[in-house]
Design goal:
Number of domains: 1
Helix content: 25-40%
Order of helices and strands: EEHEEHEHEHEH
CATH class: Alpha Beta
CATH superfamily: P-loop containing nucleotide triphosphate hydrolases
Shape: globular
Strand content: 15-25%
Length: 203
C-alpha cells in the first residue's frame, strides 16, 4: 500500500463525537484501524512512520499525553485511529476510568473497526498490563494484531528473547497466536508489511 495522502480529521472524547459514518459512506463508513498501547510506547511515531509524515501526529515526551480518540484519514479511504494509552499510574483514577470506558465504547460501538493494533514495547520484557489488555480483547472477541515498537533499542539477542517471552506468555490465553509486526522507526523494517496487511484487511 502506498500512502499518498494523510490528514488529521478530528479528536473525540467519547463514541458520540467520533466521525459520523454517514459523513463518508451511507452504508458503513470508512474502515478503521486503531492503535493502542501503554503510554510512551511510540504510537505517534508509528503513525508518522506508516504515513511518512513526521508532522502528522504530535509526539510528546510527557506520558499519558493522548487523552482523546484521534482520527487520521489515509488516502481518503480509511482511518488510522490513535487511542488513549493505558496504564500510566500518575493519571487520576477518575480520568483513567473515563478513558477506559470511552475506549471500550469505541471498540464495541464502531462497526467499521477492522482491527486493533496493540503496541508492545520491544525494548523491555513483556509487561503484565499488556497481557491483561490482550486478554480483555480476547474476552470481547475484538480482532487484533500486535506491533512491537522500539525494536532498534535492544540488541538482536535481547529483542529475540523479548519476542520469545511474549509468545510464551500469550500462548495459554489466546485462541490463536496473533500476527506480530516488529517495527523499526529508523530502518522502517516491516513498515511495508504492516501497510500491506492493513490493505488486505480492507476487504
Amino acid at each position: 500500500m502506498i500512502v499518498r495522502k494523510a490528514v488529521f480529521v478530528k479528536s473525540a472524547s467519547k463514541l458520540e463525537e467520533c466521525p459520523s459514518l454517514k459523513d463518508w459512506n451511507p452504508q458503513a463508513g470508512f474502515p478503521e484501524f486503531a492503535m493502542i498501547g501503554r503510554s510512551n510506547v511510540w504510537k505517534s511515531s508509528l503513525i508518522n512512520t506508516l504515513t511518512n509524515n513526521w508532522s502528522l501526529s504530535k509526539i510528546s515526551t510527557r506520558p499519558w499525553k493522548t487523552q482523546l480518540i484521534n482520527f487520521f484519514l489515509i488516502n481518503d479511504e480509511r482511518y488510522l485511529v490513535d487511542l488513549p494509552g493505558y496504564g500510566y499510574a500518575s493519571s487520576g483514577a477518575k480520568d483513567r476510568g473515563y478513558w477506559i470506558d470511552a475506549t471500550h465504547d469505541y471498540f464495541i460501538g464502531r462497526k467499521n473497526l477492522k482491527r486493533v493494533f496493540v503496541l508492545i514495547d520491544g525494548s523491555i520484557p513483556t509487561q503484565r498490563i499488556d497481557v491483561d489488555f490482550i486478554s480483555s480483547l480476547e474476552d470481547e472477541h475484538i480482532p487484533y494484531s500486535l506491533v512491537m515498537t522500539k525494536t532498534d533499542k535492544p540488541n538482536q539477542k535481547n529483542f529475540n528473547a523479548h519476542l520469545h517471552s511474549l509468545k510464551a506468555v500469550l500462548e495459554p490465553i489466546v485462541s490463536y497466536m496473533p500476527k506480530i509486526f516488529p517495527i523499526s522507526n529508523v530502518s522502517k523494517k516491516w513498515r511495508e508489511e504492516l501497510l500491506n496487511y492493513i490493505q488486505d484487511l480492507m476487504w
